[in-house]
Write a structure and sequence with these properties.
Blueprint lengths: L6 E12 L2 H9 L1 H5 L5 E3 L6 E7 L2 E11 L3 E6 L1 H4 L10 E10 L3 E12 L3 H14 L1 H12 L6 E10 L2 H12 L7 E4 L2 E9 L2 E8 L3 E9 L4 E10 L4 H17 L6
Antiparallel strand pairs: 1-7, 2-3, 3-4, 4-5, 5-6, 6-7, 8-13, 9-10, 10-11, 11-12, 12-13
Length: 263
């Protein structure tokens, strides 16, 4: 059986965001910027510099910068094989390229391309399908970050809880429990207030206004046919944000764990 990684995969999209190329570059190519709308990130800001994305307890993705042309072009590779627990030669590196293009009216278009080579295994196609649906909502976070919090450092809060059942039922339960309305609606959730910015497939984004300004992402995903996970990820921007996270993260976790799923 041929296991040479020669089957191409590619994900490509673009997003228009407010800001100058320099502001956008700060958001997409620095540890402080990326951690404020994406995942907790460590990056040495140079060609050849190592990078690390934290994806959860004891889980992350390692890579290195392979293209560095501020404020226009960033390229990095991740070790896709290590991330998926595969042999080092089973897969090519996962390569992501960000191109920043200034537009009139104070906006920029960010073009994102991620590509790699696998062996054509069924799990690889599933990985790429999931990556598209899981990754693209982060770019709504980027737009919101550049609209309201450019250049600011985030304190990040993230909690998840698994429940028996499917992701769709869990999402309906979570939506109802939080009182999430349609896009544009004002919402109050566990002592916070904000505005619903986006409602997508099993995920929503809320811009928080009180007690700490920021962005809150709510989501569910299926782990198996019989188990699903609900998650809350918040990026908070104020001198009080770190204290809020220390105080509220355990409360959010126990609240998520206590959700009652209809039989």
């Amino acid at each position: 059986m041929n296991t040479t990684p020669n089957v191409p995969y590619r994900l490509e999209f673009s997003v228009e965001v407010p800001g100058t190329p320099e502001q956008v570059w700060q958001a997409i190519a620095t540890a402080k910027g990326m951690s404020a709308w994406f995942l907790p990130t460590e990056i040495e800001e140079r060609e050849g510099g190592p990078l690390h994305f934290t994806m959860g307890p004891e889980m992350g993705s390692d890579g290195r910068v392979t293209g560095w042309d501020p404020p226009r072009r960033l390229v990095y590779e991740e070790d896709w094989a290590a991330l998926m627990g595969k042999e080092p030669d089973a897969l090519s590196p996962l390569t992501s390229e960000f191109l920043v293009e200034a537009h009139s009216g104070g906006t920029c278009v960010v073009r994102v391309t991620t590509s790699g080579f696998g062996t054509g295994a069924a799990w690889e196609s599933e990985f790429w399908d999931d990556m598209g649906s899981n990754w693209m909502p982060f770019f709504d976070n980027l737009r919101l970050y550049l609209s309201h919090f450019p250049g600011q450092e985030a304190a990040q809060l993230e909690v998840t809880a698994s429940h028996p059942g499917d992701a769709e039922t869990l999402w309906s339960t979570l939506q109802d429990a939080l009182g999430l309305g349609a896009e544009g609606a004002t919402v109050g959730m566990r002592g916070t207030t904000g505005r619903v910015e986006r409602v997508g497939e099993r995920q929503a984004l809320v811009r928080l206004t009180a007690p700490v300004p920021g962005m809150l992402s709510v989501f569910t995903y299926g782990e198996s046919d019989s188990t699903a996970t609900a998650g809350i990820r918040a990026y908070l921007f104020s001198p009080d944000a770190a204290d809020y996270v220390r105080r509220e993260e355990p409360e959010w976790r126990s609240w998520l764990q206590g959700l009652t799923i209809p039989a």
